[in-house]
Design brief:
Radius of gyration: 29 Å
Number of domains: 2
Mean pLDDT: 79
Shape: elongated
Distance between the termini: 50 Å
Strand content: 5-15%
Low-confidence stretches: 1-8, 202-210, 262-270, 371-384
Order of helices and strands: HHEHEHHEHEHEHHHHHHHHHHH
Number of helices: 18
Helix content: 55-70%
Largest sheet: 5 strands, parallel
Length: 384
């Protein structure tokens, strides 16, 4: 019973999450400066703030600065966490504009160039600085459905990863890209963990305790993902409230219950690959439901959630087969995460087996010392 009671400690495990560190990551200061043509600056501002905003912003973190003023405001540029060089392709660059961009691009700050309203500069334009041109993100039509996605992908490519969550919390335009990447990454992490931890599950004595531990690890990863989604969409940072409010959102723990039932071995005939698919699907469906809730406040109907989980499980099974095939063909581990987890699991298995062997020897010696020495009695029937 003590081993199965680990499932009852699920909330205790979630409470152990260092929510303070995640909150600090989301609320850290962030200042982006956009430098360029006036209309291009207005467009960058629109793209950065275009998107669902269920929780109203309390401040703005994007400062526009025209090229005419840029060379006189190097203090502002040097204090920025990232620079966006916004160029209107229809206007192009004068020689002085090009020189100013070159000087700005040399500053020791992350920078990305956004080329707007066309795929190339006007014929009479001076050329872009080569280093900036190599990092250019082209957005020909800022009103197209793909414009916000292009902006967000280019933005995140050059912003340090430690500031991605803070950027999502401040800029509605980059939230969808952040959410999609977070859900995909966490789903793959859980799938890799489920694959790496499948070895000890094949040992009958160790199977259930390790499966229960798996549930706690996978659920903890899901809780962190949900909290990051909440913060990314500007929700109040109280960790317990965010987790509590999202529980009914994910279909009354439908996904987690399905994941738990598989991982504890109640369906052992399914084997390793489907278990990895369930780990991927459970995490993916949970993320999608939380994403919808924090973005719009809407619930995903249970039938749709089940459909999403089914599709994600198919994807997870395919990814599991790919990982296994790669491991078989190359002799490598299934990736850095799976390799690390597999090493830990293998070490843990060896440690437990050695402990069990030592305890059994000690117990056997104690029993032998306590038992009286008796000669076996011979019955009359045996003597005949």
């Amino acid at each position: 019973m003590s081993r199965w009671s680990a499932l009852g400690n699920l909330w205790a495990t979630i409470r152990e999450i260092d929510a303070g560190a995640i909150r600090a990551e989301a609320e850290q200061p962030l200042h982006i400066v956009a430098v360029g043509h006036d209309l291009a600056l207005a467009t960058i501002d629109t793209l950065a703030y275009r998107g669902p905003n269920r929780y109203p912003l309390t401040s703005r973190s994007l400062t526009p600065l025209s090229l005419r003023e840029a060379t006189r405001r190097t203090d502002l540029l040097r204090s920025a966490d990232m620079l966006i060089l916004a160029v209107d392709s229809r206007i192009g660059l004068t020689e002085s504009d090009a020189m100013a961009l070159t000087q700005i691009d040399r500053l020791p700050r992350p920078a990305v160039l956004m080329l707007l309203f066309g795929e190339r500069l006007a014929a009479t334009s001076a050329p872009l600085p080569p280093s900036a041109a190599a990092r250019a993100v082209v957005i020909p039509d800022p009103d197209h459905n793909s414009a916000v996605r292009r902006f967000a992908e280019g933005f995140y490519e050059h912003l340090p990863a430690t500031q991605h969550l803070a950027a999502a919390r401040r800029f509605p335009g980059v939230r969808a890209v952040y959410a999609r990447r977070l859900i995909d990454s966490t789903s793959m992490t859980n799938a890799a963990y489920a694959l790496a931890s499948s070895l000890p599950e094949q040992i009958p004595i160790l199977g259930i305790p390790f499966a229960v531990a798996d549930i706690l690890v996978l659920t903890k990863n899901q809780a962190i993902m949900v909290y990051r989604l909440a913060l990314a969409y500007g929700a109040p940072p109280d960790f317990r409230q965010r987790i509590a409010e999202v529980m009914p959102v994910v279909g009354g723990a439908f996904v987690w219950r399905e994941l738990a039932r598989t991982l504890v071995g109640l369906a052992p005939a399914w084997g390793v690959v489907p278990k990895v698919g369930i780990a991927y699907a459970g995490t993916y469906a949970t993320g999608m439901a939380a994403w919808r809730w924090y973005e719009t406040g809407e619930l995903i109907p249970r039938e749709e959630l089940a459909r999403i989980a089914g599709e994600a499980r198919t994807i997870g099974v395919a990814k599991a087969r790919e990982l296994i095939e790669q491991a078989r063909s190359t002799g490598e581990a299934t990736g850095n995460t799976a390799k690390e987890m597999a090493g830990r699991v293998a070490d843990r298995v060896g440690h437990l087996v050695e402990q069990a062997r030592q305890r059994s020897h000690q117990t056997l010696r104690r029993v032998r010392h306590r038992l009286p020495l008796r000669r076996p009695s011979v019955s009359s029937n045996d003597s005949e």
